[in-house]
Amino acid sequence: MALDIGGKTIATDEEGYLENLNDWTPEVATAMALAEETPVALNDEHWEIINFLREYYEEYQIAPAVRVLTKAVGKRLGADKGNSKYLYSLFPYGPGKQACKYAGLPKPTGCV
């Protein structure tokens, strides 16, 4: 599978995750979100979580599972954002899976 962004082909695996993490750009994230079965227009709340995930990955070299993500978001961004209800409202296909995909990260461990 692949995404075509501005004339450049970006390789993805069968689930839509980037094959090369260095191919990520905000435009790639936007294209991934719009390519969903139910297209998503990324807003500031989405970007806050996507950028948080990219920083988390840079620091720990791992994409967090949902429970870890929820706890870490709560610590950094506050309890109103560090809960499953909020994260699922932004990423209904699963905050771990969907948000990590948009952030250009590997699929989190433990996600099916």
From TrEMBL:
It comes from the Bacteria. One of its GO terms (molecular function) is sulfur carrier activity. One of its GO terms (cellular component) is cytoplasm. The active site is at C111 (cysteine persulfide intermediate). Part of a sulfur-relay system. Belongs to the dsrC/tusE family. This is Sulfurtransferase. It comes from Thiothrix eikelboomii. The lineage of its organism: Bacteria, Pseudomonadati, Pseudomonadota, Gammaproteobacteria, Thiotrichales.
